Fold:
Amino acid sequence: MSLLIGTRGSRLAIVQADIVCAMLKKKGIDVEKVVITTEGDTETGVPLHAIGGQGVFVRALDDAILSREIDAAVHSMKDIPAVRPPGLLTSAILRRDSPADYLAHTMPVGEIHTIGTSSTRRRAQLLRHDPDLCVTDLRGNVDTRLRKLDNGEFHAIVLAEAGIERLGINVPGERLPPETFVPSPNQGAIAVVGRNDPSLTELLSVLDDNMTRGDVAIERAVMEQLGGGCYTPQGIFCREGHLIAEVLSLDGTRCVRIEEDVTGIEAARERGRELRVRARDLIQEAYARLGVKDDR
Structure:
């Protein structure tokens, strides 16, 4: 009997699911792909934070696993919320692709003024780099965003470099260095989530990459202590234990940042708690301006 592997219906999500399915098939495991529509795919007319943040891409797939409609689901790891429903397990994290953001554009950099992105983090980092930029909201899948760029609605747009590489798209532009434009926690990593069932976990865990799992675990530990990732501009990136984490004001004019080597999850949690204390004013300000209650 085949394993039922769920995915969102966007082209990138399907490509990522195909990558996982192909890897499992190479291991001799029969699989079948199941496409499931999520709220994040249908509600594209409002900013992401207004419909619940990144978790909107995950909830429908979580429900399908728990109802046994599917056995597992493939996600961009950065979309998975910190708090997870009981009964689910991240059974595998694939070797990480590029964690960096990518600025897609066809005009000279010096002529770029209007940039599209739905991310408060990317917006704040772009404004920190150049306060004169006009950064406006842009939702939709990769194809939709690129079409709006081609139509001249924006001078440039920001995408995850890993996504365009997986899609095999040749997009003019430039990579934004992750040391400066610190990415979202877990950006560039693909995760496979399944029911917390030992026999299922054993099958899926053949895809797990230990180094990537360690780095993304450190990033998530910091993220969990910081909280508010959908609303507060924050970048968290770990490579082989070297952690960079920052919280920015919404307009990019202020920033609290740490950079150091971290060994172990508890040390990462401590760094996250320290960063939250130091950045408390920025976090509370972001919640207030976006009209969201900070319950921590």
